[in-house]
Amino acid sequence: MLNFVFFKKIFQDKYTNDVPDKICKELYPMNKQLKRYLTITLGTCISGIALNTFFLPHHLLSGGITGLGMILFYLFGWQVSVTNILFNIPLFILAYKLMSRNYFISGIFGTLALSFFLHLFAPLKDLMAVHDPMLSCIAGGVLHGIGLGTLYRVGGSTGGSDIIGAIVQKFYSISIGTTGFLINIVLLCAGAFFFGLEPALYTMTAYFVVFKVSNAFTDGFDFKKNIIIISDHNEEIAEAIIKIVGRGVTYIEGEGAFTHQHRKLLFCVVKLTQVAKIKQLVKGLDPFAFMIVQDASDVFGRGFTQRTDHTVQRPPELRTGWTEMHEAESK
């Protein structure tokens, strides 16, 4: 109980004057916070290795304040680990005003952790492990992207453009990687001015790799799909999806603009591996069905991030064919 009260006081949301004990206990248990900070530590460790091993030896730039610190390191020899902390102070004041205390504190932790690992692995930049700049761009971009994506998945931050990206994501649902990539164009131009066009082009390649890898790790690799089906056999298709594939289906009332005919559209969210089975079912039941398959970047709720609620009961007349559904759920 003492741990719960401690975390409630530290991580209480800035915009909430009084968070109920039950909610705080659910959101901020000790084990989840410990796992979260260990994940942030792992991500910053990976990024620290990537920056010292692949970026610094070839005068490549990272993003945000770290990238600015790298420019100053190349020009004046100032340690990136020190400038990373000093230049992040104004941005954390902004984060304190606009973001939750949870994000604010984890951001400070991430910045300090990254600065620590930049200092710890600093000797790696003198080894010149990879002599080819392009290979360094790719390998460093992948490794740095994994590090950033790892901490992004748990809401972590390393300061700099991460703070701006997190604020933009909160209010406009634009990914942190996209916002960071746009902000880093300014740093790219500064790098081209001070060090020439060729290092800037290598940096741009590294930026792109970091952007793609960090977004992939943030969104995850267990891809989901939205499916919309328009068919004259909507009930048969819905029952087949529920009983054979084991996924829920929602009816959406629709009307054709040409015929003004009312019909029910089918909407469901499935795993990527289930799309082929649904296509087969739809074609078998209605070869003339109209079907749309779209990417779903984030899916939350029962059947995906929560266990299936087996207390929800269907009407007795529909409780047929459950053997196929249980078999589908077990796969």
Structure in words:
The chain has 331 residues and is α+β, with helices and mostly antiparallel strands. The protein has 2 domains: 2-219, no CATH class; 224-330, 2-Layer Sandwich (Alpha-Beta Plaits), CATH 3.30.70.120. The chain is built from 14 helices and 4 strands. Helix 4 crosses helix 5 (80-86), helix 4 (64-76) packs parallel to helix 10 and helix 8 packs parallel to helix 11 (197-219). Mean pLDDT is 81; it is low at 1-27.
Provide keyphrases for this structure.
single chain, 331 residues, alpha+beta, Alpha-Beta Plaits, 2 domains, 4-stranded antiparallel β-sheet, 4 strands, 60% helix, disordered N terminus
Compute the number of structural domains.
2
> What's the pLDDT, averaged over the residues?
81
What's the total number of strands? 4
Biggest β-sheet, characterized? Answer: 4 strands, antiparallel
Count the helices. How many? 14
- Beta-strand fraction estimate: 5-15%
Q: Percent range for helical residues?
A: 55-70%
Strand order of the largest sheet: 2-3-1-4
- Helix/strand class: alpha+beta
Residue windows where pLDDT falls under 50 for at least 5 positions: 1-27
Q: Over all CA atoms, what is the radius of gyration?
A: 25 Å
